[in-house]
Q: What sequence folds into this?
């Protein structure tokens, strides 16, 4: 049984959907998951985009918001749109999620932050919001922020982005199983099947 | 029971997959399908693209070809890559497909042309290839080309593109059920469910 790596960006709308369902599905399939927060901004910049493609291309954006509503309804997921801003700046949440890996609270923090952003119109670039989420998970915010903002952790997030690029990742959510890449919440089932094969 | 409109472009890789499965699925669900060939080129041009985004963004393109292979394997569909050229110029095939609507051979012609392009490395911008496909369907090529190239049919194809744009379509395959838009082969099932609801 191989591990599935779940690459996500906190600004990414469909990453929200995956974050809320990957744990349940992976347990059901018996596939271990590694949660890998990263940033799409630096990758999009290299493609010539200084904004989300959903903002750059309005027809695509309008479609995505409607599709997101439908997908969330199918999944029984709460959603409240629009989020505080889009794309959200996910760097603080990503640093925290990465810092939490050693202590094991990355999945719970990630799901809670996504829910705050997409279902509760809370601002996950705001330290108070992030602190409240951490407190809700019995994680000490001061300690978590110190770990998140340590130079080694910031560098680790850059390295995570660089690795994503090397692996051919150009969007989120993405999944890797060894060298095999899957893109999009719609490919979660296929990626899990690949990990089991 | 509402009709599902299937918007496709002959250059579009995932439109191939849909063209080969929509008939079967729609019959199983009892949903009528209207096949609506159109052209993405004029729509992409307005977005600033003079080429397929899969060529403009190499990481996305590399991923797409691999994903297409996997999807075809899952669907039991033949695929032989790369096609003669990509993106293919689908205008001749689209004009024929549109001309065939009155006589009812649009679905069969469309599936055969997609298969020639993506499973047989034949050139569907070549008149001989298109003639052979028509002959295989017991359609007289001379008559079909005359209908396809009639000014009214060329205009009808432009009108089809204009309608696609008005309906918010920005890629292919797309599906409309009334005002509801679905994008991508992955949304075929959701679009059929919407038509039945």
A:
């Amino acid at each position: 049984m191989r591990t599935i790596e779940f690459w996500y960006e906190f600004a990414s709308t469909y990453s929200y959907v995956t974050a809320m369902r990957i744990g349940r599905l992976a347990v059901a399939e018996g596939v271990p998951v590694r949660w890998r927060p990263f940033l799409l901004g630096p990758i999009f910049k290299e493609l010539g985009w200084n904004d989300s493609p959903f903002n750059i291309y309005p027809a695509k954006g309008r479609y995505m918001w409607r599709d997101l509503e439908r997908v969330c309804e199918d999944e029984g997921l709460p959603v409240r749109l629009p989020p505080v801003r889009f794309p959200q700046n996910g760097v603080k949440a990503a640093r925290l999620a990465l810092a939490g890996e050693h202590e094991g609270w990355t999945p719970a923090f990630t799901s809670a932050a996504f829910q705050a952003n997409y279902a509760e119109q809370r601002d996950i670039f705001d330290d108070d919001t992030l602190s409240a989420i951490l407190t809700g998970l019995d994680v000490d915010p001061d300690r978590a922020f110190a770990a998140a903002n340590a130079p080694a952790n910031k560098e680790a997030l850059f390295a995570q982005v660089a690795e994503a690029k090397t692996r051919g990742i150009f969007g989120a959510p993405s999944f890797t199983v060894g060298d095999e890449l899957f893109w999009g919440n719609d490919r979660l089932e296929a990626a899990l099947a690949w990990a089991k094969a």
